Structure prediction request, 659 residues.
Amino acid sequence: MAESEILLEVKNLKMHFPTGGGFLSGKKSFIYAVDGIDFVLRKGETLGLVGESGCGKSTTARAIAQLYRPTSGEVLLNGKDLTKLKDKELIAARKGMQMVFQDPYASLNPRMTAGDIIAEPMRIYNGHGILSLSTQEMDERVEQLMERVGLSRFFKNRFPHEFSGGQRQRIGIARALALRPELVLCDEPVSALDVSIQAQILNLFKDLQEEFGLTYLFIAHDLAVIEYISTRVAVMYLGTIVEMANSADLYRNPLHPYTQALLSAVPIPDPKIERQRKRIILTGDVPSPDKVRPGCPFYDRCWKRMDHCQSSKPPVKEVEPGHQVTCFLY
Amino acid sequence: MATNDDIILQVKDLRTYFNTDEGIVKAVDGVTFNLHKGETLGIVGESGSGKSVTNLSVINMIPSPPGRIAGGEILYHGKDLLKMSKHEIRQIRGNKIAMIFQDPMTSLNPFLRVSTQMVETIVLHQGLDKKAAKEKAIEMLKLAGIPAPEKRIDQYPHQFSGGMRQRVMIAMGLSCNPEILIADEPTSALDVTIQAQILELMKDLTERLGTAVILITHSLGVVAGTCDTLCVMYAGRFVESGPTDLIFESPMHPYTQGLIRSVPRLDHKSGERLSSIRGQPPNVIDLPDCCPFYPRCDKAMDICKKKYPAWKTLGNGRTVGCWLYSEDK
Prediction:
């Protein structure tokens, strides 16, 4: 595969949220939600971001979209550092980047019709003078988008509560495509849906990517979903990327002990395979990201840990071209 | 193959309806199954298919009104649970038939220490005094893999993580040595690595104690690894049931076939397109009296729009509700 142009580059992104303490006690504590991650996203590819709850997947997406202003690091979209841009410039630069959210119930305004929801991004950019679409053009685009994502244009005047979960997610996707973005950040877009509907939406994402040449950052906790949709996969744990590789390489040859455990924990819908599988059962829970760890973030639960893992941070190592892992074993 | 003597729970033609402003919701509409001693029975289906209502009906916990059990029998060792008095059913619920729920945060009382909640159940059903009950509770927590149970038992639910809370629920559910454990989506709120821990624990404990389990889930993967028998539910009815292996090997009902094909799988080669079931699950309000799956079915025939298919037994313990397998079309 020829290397295409870099669309998004994330450099040492950190997002720390202050909690409690502070002022009088003089102590400050933080949640280290995202703690230094780097990756690049090339045009037309899908990077899957996978990890357990609380590992910082969603925070990463939000920090990229500048919904949270990152604590430090750079987010370069087409070479422009979004973290340094102010109001108007940011709005203009962000036009090429849209988000699809997890909960199709909470992410649509219940008082707006489907048509208005899909048209809203265009209206906002019209207001800022970045776009100049007439009402008729907007109407046409809304109808085209609705048909494209599999909703009848006659549903334009209906309200979100009149749609099912899968249909709502289609509205959310149409809204994200309204500005013809290059990059779509998908934050668990299928995890709230039933399996039969989930397959429909996953296929829709694939078709749209082909048709519009979209680039996705696709977040999910379901490894099978990630495998299906992604060209490359990054595995996150406690705010860091522990392993990143081409989708096929990662699933065939997982290197990091966490990735191995994660993959072995996924149930496979086939009783014969299930009965013979050896599971790596991790002990304990995901720790809270509320303190600075001098060593490997996975140390507490690792089943292959060594003494020096606790005291020093493992380096990022490129084991084979395009397959990087953050672990002392390699 | 289990014999009829081993049957501990028989559900016959269960119907649970809810009256709403828009009409009657037939959440469960004619469900029949048997549960054998020590068996793990899985019920899979999508949201709203009636999985949870089936099991709430079994332990007679349907809120009434608006709900009511409109018909059917639930025989526990031959005695109909639906005809029992409130007092009689309390002797069984939580004691002989225990239940664990999806969300361990909402099913534990946040104001009470874990010890209070566990001891209450044990004192009520086992007639132990408080001290002995607490010892029993600590022993159960230990079995459920909670470190330092002597200390943890005096903590409040919010001091436990999600996975630990589910362990507490399992310990509590099994504390009276129930014959049947009903687990309603016990791992759906948990991460995969924790899910693997909890499933392993449930399997281990119920095998050791000889408890029969009814496992409700939407995940085919979870079912494949844990259940002996599988029932597939759609719009308030079972569409197919039988031994788990056989159903996965050769699913008969078009819905089961579609469901199995639409799950992305790690062990499949990538690049294959997922097949999905078109359309959406039906609204269960005022369903017409025909096969509820026909608008989404690729093999739909004329008769599917007119009549509901009979429940057909096919040997090997398999049954299916579909016109494709019925002779009297």
